[in-house]
Automatic annotation (TrEMBL):
Microtubule inner protein component of sperm flagellar doublet microtubules. It comes from the Eukaryota. It holds the Pfam family RIB43A. Belongs to the RIB43A family. It comes from Dreissena polymorpha. Residues 37-64 form a coiled coil. PANTHER family: RE41410P (PTHR14517:SF6), RIB43A-RELATED (PTHR14517). This is Uncharacterized protein. The keyword Coiled coil applies. Keywords: Cell projection, Cilium, Coiled coil, Cytoplasm, Cytoskeleton, Flagellum.
């Protein structure tokens, strides 16, 4: 009887230790997943910042280019005399 009781206690202890190890492993895995998710979120935010910066830079460049075209390139609008030159002769 003493041996059976000892074996049962030992099995209970082993099972308890196994449960503790399992819980520790689960907590470690949950922490690792949480850290990975945080890192992914940081990377996503950094990518969003870079994209927003690039979009601002491109918008500024486009504005400068439109201003340049309006002030420097398209300064001589076509007149009626220009359009009158078309369809005036046959082949």
């Amino acid at each position: 009887m003493l041996i059976g009781s000892f074996c049962e206690q030992r099995l209970t202890q082993v099972e308890h230790l196994r449960n503790i190890e399992h819980d520790c492993q689960r907590l470690a895995n949950a922490r690792a997943v949480m850290l990975l998710e945080r890192e992914q979120e940081r990377k996503r935010e950094e990518l969003q910042r870079r994209l927003a910066d690039e979009n601002r830079r491109l918008a500024q460049k486009q504005t400068y280019h439109k201003d340049y075209l309006g002030k420097e390139v398209y300064t001589n609008p076509p007149t009626a005399a220009y359009f009158g030159k078309f369809n005036t002769s046959t082949r």
